[in-house]
Amino acid sequence: MSVSNINPIFMINKRYNSLSKSEKRVAEYIQKHMDEAVVLTLQGLAKKCDTSDATVLRFCRSLGYIGYADFKISLVPELLRTGKKVYLEVYKKDGTGDIKEGLKQNFVNQAESTLNNCNIKTLCSLALKISKANKVIIIGLGGSAGVAQIFCDSLSSLGIFSSFLHDRSIIQNVAPMLKAPDVLVGISHSGETEEVISAIKTAREYGAITIGITNFSPSGLADAAQFPLLTVVPSNLLGSYSCQARISQLVILELILYEISKLLKSDYSKLNSK
User: Fold this and answer.
1) H or E stretch covering 209
2) Three-class secondary structure of residue 257 per DSSP
3) What is the pTM assigned to this prediction?
4) DSSP per-residue codes, 130-193
5) How many CA atoms lie within 13 A of 22 on its CB side?
6) Of 36-45, 65-74, 84-93, 188-197, which gets the smallest average pLDDT?
7) Could you report the per-residue pLDDT of 85-137, keeping only the tens digit for each?
8) What pLDDT is stored for residue 231 in this prediction?
9) Residues 187, 196: Cα–Cα separation, whole Å
10) How far apart (Å, rounded) are the C-alpha atoms in residues 138 and 150?
């Protein structure tokens, strides 16, 4: 049986005595505050437990999970069994509780918050860098891989050479091959996807322009990227597995695409005027 199918609290109790002192603090916090832990970043949980990011990661792996995101998603079924809701209460415009109107308003508020959080000068600068890049590589795992592919396809339609990667080993092999003015875009809702963080760090060391899209700062990705871009998605039990995270990521990328299209249109106009 896969560890992901086993109650995580059962796994904590089973292996508690083999944990280090600092790992036991993590275990105890999760046992008491599981509903809070599921929406915390790796760094956030480490801070709550007065320990290091590495300790939290070791704790997850000692239970048999691949990483922190894998462990967090295993908490969701257990929380649902206790009656927790996956999402925050749907916004109600009036007393009718119309779910369609409520969801629409939630998504509008989320998009507006994400756009308001963006620095337009930074996005314009990044659009220029992407339009002038030799190569643009977009990376992401899980749901972020889908967003990476959409952005890659959009860039290709504008005539910009780009590739998206979602294979862990290929991502690690490609990162050292990038250099200025190449651009590497890393996408991770939690900001704690190890492969994405590692690739961003490596590419930046070799001179590539690095962009990180995440919902959390501080986080590993926000700290590693030269240009961190933050979405504003309310916490819910599904975290990065929620469609809400993808919509906000696409909002930021759509704005960058808009600025790129303006630059390309200007370049074409200059060429035609000669």
Assistant:
1) strand 209-214
2) helix
3) 0.75
4) HHH-S-EEEE--THHHHHHHHHHHHHHHTT--EEEE--HHHHHHHGGG--TT-EEEEE-SSS--
5) 15
6) 84-93
7) 555 555 445 555 567 777 777 788 888 889 998 999 999 999 999 999 999 99
8) 93
9) 7
10) 10
CATH number of 49's domain: 1.10.10.10
Phi, psi dihedral angles at 183 (to 5 degrees): -125, 130
Q: Which amino acid is at 221?
A: L
Domain encompassing residue 19: 3-81
Half-sphere exposure for 257 (CA within 13 Å, toward CB): 16
- Asked whether the beta carbons of 164 and 139 are under 8 A apart, the reply is yes
91 located within any domain: no
Count of domains forming the chain: 2
Kindly list the distances between the CA atom of residue 234 and the CA atoms of 68, 88, 155, 202, 218, in Å, as whole numbers in the listed order. Answer: 19, 8, 29, 31, 16
Residues 160 and 220 in one domain: yes
**Euclidean distance between CA atoms 9 and 14, whole angstroms:** 8
53 and 175 in a common domain? no
